[in-house]
């Protein structure tokens, strides 16, 4: 299986207001974008497992002009709350680095 870190040139996470986080995933080529943009490794269920979010609220937006997939999900706790560990959500992407991706054929 291919890990996300091996097919991306940049991955970033950031706050999208006090209640949401956005991940920007830039693939290293148009071919890899097409191959992995719909991978089960980027499914709402993976975000539920990694970030404890409701999979029904996860939003995934492919942006082919930039070989980018943008994924937004609600924060488990509001920004600045008592249990805040990453105020600007800048470190949330790290959990995605080792996510395994599979292409349309299911074999990678």
Features:
single chain; 108 residues; alpha+beta; Alpha-Beta Plaits; four-stranded antiparallel sheet
Characterization of this structure:
This protein is an alpha+beta fold and 108 residues long. The chain has a domain at 2-75: Alpha-Beta Plaits, CATH 3.30.70. Helix content is 14%, strand content 30%. It has two helices and six strands. It has helices spanning 30-36, 44-51; strands at 2-3, 8-15, 20-27, 59-63, 68-74, 100-101. The strands form two sheets. It has a four-stranded antiparallel beta sheet. Strands 1-6 form a two-stranded antiparallel sheet. The longest helix is centred in the middle third of the chain and has 8 residues, at 44-51. The protein starts with a strand and ends in a 7-residue tail after the last strand.
Element layout with pairings:
Layout: E1 2-3, E2 8-15, E3 20-27, H1 30-36, H2 44-51, E4 59-63, E5 68-74, E6 100-101
Q: Per CATH, what is the topology of the domain at 2-75?
A: Alpha-Beta Plaits
Radius of gyration: 14 Å
What spatial order of strands do you see in the largest sheet? Answer: 2-3-5-4
In DSSP terms (H or I, runs of 4 or more residues), the helix count works out at: 2
CATH class of the domain at 2-75: Alpha Beta
